[in-house]
Amino acid sequence: MILGVMAIFFSCEGSIKDVQKIKRSSFFPSGEADSINLKYTDSGKIKSVLRSKKMLDYSNIENGFTEFPEGVLVTMFDENNKTTIIESNYAISYKKTDIIDLQGNVVITSHDGKKLETEQLYFDQKNEWFFTEKHFKYSDGTGGFLQGPGVDFSKDFKIFNMQTTNGEINNVEE
Fold first, then answer.
1. What pTM was estimated for this model as a whole?
2. Vertex 80, ends 51 and 174: CA angle to 5°?
3. 145-173, pLDDT tens digit by residue?
4. Which whole-number Å values give the CA distances from 172 to 5, 46, 56, 157, in the listed order?
């Protein structure tokens, strides 16, 4: 009988430890939304619109984040109301760092036809700056293009820093 009680005790102890381990290693969102259409305004003017089929909010954990497991479509407006469209298959926004990680078929298209394509792109919201170490392709809207690994640029494409690239630039005189 003593052996039976000891066997039950040790088997329960293992189960309790497994449950505690699961509780520590898994977490659940504090909020969930379907078919969102979020507008960000500043001084009464719309600055951006974010659309997504699903949003999961994990602000209840120490390093909170918001996840968009089914992708995002973001429309950004400049001071002249010109748009830049950002699309990706997946996105995650980290609250403490204000960094957004866009993944899977990331495409940025500006109002004047400039386009950047890559598999992963980070956006620093504080500095309004994009960057990636992944391969990218940039089209300038006039038939010219650049491609290669690694690029960082301002949200309006006015400042563009590349690592190793190749491509073709058309010289357009105005």
1. 0.77
2. 120
3. 888 899 998 877 788 888 776 666 665 54
4. 86, 33, 46, 17
